[in-house]
Amino acid sequence: MVEFANAQAGSLRAAPPLMLSPGYANEEGTTSGRAPPTRGVFEVVNKSKYSNEIIGVLVSPIAAELALKRQRDVLGHLEYLRHGCMPAQTVMHGTFGDDLEVLEVALFYGCKQPSVDALTTVPSVADAFEHVKGYRVACKGRNVLLKYKDGVGLEPQRGESSFSIMKKKKKSMGGGIDMSTNVDVLELVPG
């Protein structure tokens, strides 16, 4: 009972989940010539190639805890999952503040619906997925750029190489974000 009360109190104090938007995190910056952000960016790419798999992503300081324990969601944080559903070969992004030290990411996969549009009609998006994994990542002063691969789960993006005369630099594909600003470790939260 005490553990349940502490968890509920933690959810009341937690910042709301990130509002994810379609597209690469620095897509507009690359066309305008602005420098890519060195911190505070979250980006996830659904790299499903063969299964055309729909995934759902919820990102907040308590996302894994809420998703894995299925506690009573007093503030409606799980509703943000409606904005984090992605078909294969798509990208979503959001931003987080400098004060945030740790982010949790809940990955929902094994979608029971045929399309992302069909998910808009279900009462609980979380219940429309067969599986959920939780991740924790230290994000203070970093970007969090992740990718999902067919049924494997989430992992940090490594980027593509862009060769220059002086040195080889790895950047994210669409937003051109320097991979040296990305997190290195993504910790799996036990369910």
What does this molecule look like?
- The protein is α+β, with helices and mostly antiparallel strands.
- The chain has one domain (2-189).
- Helices cover 15% and strands 33% of the residues.
- It contains 4 helices and 12 strands; from the N terminus they run αβαββαβββαββββββ.
- The chain has helices at residues 2-13, 27-32, 63-69, 116-119, and strands spanning 21-22, 41-46, 55-60, 85-86, 90-95, 102-111, 129-138, 144-149, 153-156, 160-163, 168-171, 187-189.
- The strands form 3 sheets. A 5-stranded mixed beta sheet has the order 1-5-2-8-9, with no helix packed on it. Strands 4-3-6-7-12 form a 5-stranded antiparallel beta sheet, with helices on one face. A two-stranded antiparallel sheet has the order 10-11.
- The longest helix is centred in the first third of the chain and has 12 residues, at 2-13.
- It starts with a helix and ends with a strand.
